[in-house]
Specification:
With about 350 residues, the protein is an all-alpha fold. About 75% of the residues lie in helices and about 0% in strands.
Length: about 350
């Protein structure tokens, strides 16, 4: 029986078998990476040997983690269509709606590229401006890819702390923007869009259909981000193999108070995503950089990127964009100092 037909007829059995194969392959990654380096004419203990082992181990590891979690989140996301998300947020007032919007940002598959259509959809549905920003900040910064990779590489404590502080930044930043009453700083054509009611239709799906949603998410997300992953791991491998121990501590360590704002300034113009930047984060930490400084860099790259800001210029006037960047950057800076102070 073809695999596709089997997965549709017996989705539960297919999921169990796929999960078992995934776990089995994951356990083999370290010995396989060491074996690959051993057959090359390279000394394993040399700089090049260390860099190659890092690359051969982290590339399949990150891709497998990403594929597994994106598939699961793709099934979960089938419950949160854009229409359902708009409807949930349009029914809530300020405050609690900011909390709900930030939490929905974790489980909804929207990236910075979706910023404009989502923004317009939320305005049409009557979602308050501050609530919309809570969602737009949370969705790229505290997404399933970032949390999964942080959990896989640094453990649940770091992932949980990152999620808590990221949600706090999204909630508080959105609330502040809402309090500033800057609706007049939307572009005129956005303010003039006719309001429409956000309705939720009957979207009950079978397990096989939700499984198909998971595979579609894998094709869409992993298919797009894998080049960034390879570049990020390659940079991480060079840092891992060639940068001297404790080198990063001299300008990204806890003692350099200015390292957090500098990391944000460096991170904003970059264009990548969590999958591409986390391997670099892993290598920087191994070389002595402080966790708060590195995570502030990561948050600024994926949550406050220049490309997203340029995209948002289509719907926001410059004063609102400057306010958005200033409020979020202040929150990220606070997160960096908190991480450095307590970890």
């Amino acid at each position: 029986m073809p695999l596709r037909v089997f997965s549709q007829k017996h989705p539960l059995a297919f999921l169990w078998i796929a999960g078992a194969i995934w776990l089995g392959l994951y356990q083999l990654l370290i010995p396989l990476s060491e074996s690959l380096v051993s057959v090359l004419p390279v000394d394993r203990n040399s700089h090049l040997g260390g860099a190659l082992q890092f690359f051969f181990y982290d590339t399949p590891k990150v891709l497998m983690l990403l594929t597994g979690i994106v598939f699961i989140m793709g099934m979960i996301n089938s419950y949160f269509t854009p229409e359902r998300t708009r409807s949930l947020l349009a029914r809530r007032g300020e405050g609690m709606a900011n909390v709900m919007a930030a939490c929905l940002g974790i489980v909804t598959p929207f990236c910075s590229c979706s910023a404009v259509p989502l923004f317009i959809g939320f305005v049409q549905a009557g979602v308050p401006l501050g609530v919309t920003f809570s969602f737009l900040i949370s969705a790229p910064m505290v997404n399933e890819v970032a949390l999964t990779l942080l959990f896989g590489l640094f453990g649940w404590k770091t992932a949980l702390l990152y999620m808590s502080l990221g949600l706090t930044v999204a909630i508080v930043s959105g609330w502040i923007i809402g309090r500033l009453k800057m609706e007049n700083h939307l572009e005129d054509w956005v303010r003039d869009i006719p309001r429409t009611e956000a309705n939720v239709g009957d979207d009950a799906l079978t397990l096989a259909e939700r499984s198909s949603s998971g595979w579609n998410a894998v094709r869409d997300i992993v298919g797009k981000v894998w080049p960034y992953i390879l570049v990020g791991i390659a940079i991480g491998a060079v840092i891992h193999g060639y940068v001297p121990e404790d080198f990063m501590a001299s300008f990204m360590g806890k003692d350099a108070w200015w390292s957090v704002p500098l990391a944000i300034v460096i991170g904003v113009p970059m264009y990548t995503n969590a999958a591409g930047v986390i391997p670099i984060v892993q290598a920087l930490l191994a070389k002595g950089a402080a966790l708060g400084t590195v995570l502030a860099f990561m948050m600024s790259v994926i949550g406050l990127s220049l490309p997203e800001t340029i995209i948002l210029r289509k719907v926001l006037k410059m004063k609102l964009i400057v306010t958005f960047v200033g409020v979020v950057a202040s929150g990220i800076m606070l997160v960096g100092y908190v991480f450095n102070a307590f970890l």
